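Notes to self, Disulfide bond formation protein B:
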Amino acid sequence: MNKNWLERIRLTPRIGFFLGFFGCVFLLSMGAYFQFVGGLEPCPLCISQRIGILLTGIVFLIAGLHNPGRAGIKAYAILGTLAALGGGAVSVRHVWLQHLPPEEVPECGPGLEYVFNNFPLTETLKLMLSGTGDCAKVDWTFWGLSMPAWTLVAFLMLAALSLLQFWNARPRGSESSRD
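result:
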């Protein structure tokens, strides 16, 4: 009985990858909505998380369009998981900064536009991945979780969806599989 239930909810890898891609599109759309409609300016860590979502979405899109065999599905699943966990690591840093006592919050830095125009790329990347005092401010919550906390949840769900493709890569019953 359990096997039938699991088999009924099992998606093709292509559908699974496209679901992940559309999830990433949704997340990026929400970020744009909060920025352009809600007036919330993204901090360096927010932008880094958006880049993580974008990279994860690109992996999912390429995997869905490519529709590879079992070996390719596993490779894309690993890439998607790594991209999602990389973005999740940035989210963890962001949540950690938001929970620091006020006296331990790092100083606010210059705006990103200024940094991009006047700092070397290595310094810009360091700032984008370590955050500033701006990143410690909580502008929005839902059910007690800040936006970076919800983004962390989303990254973990994307990583899980990507890992599920290993299960989807197994051949089904009498279907032939491509390698």
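- Residues 173-179 have pLDDT under 50 and may be disordered.
- Strands lie at 141-142, 145-146.
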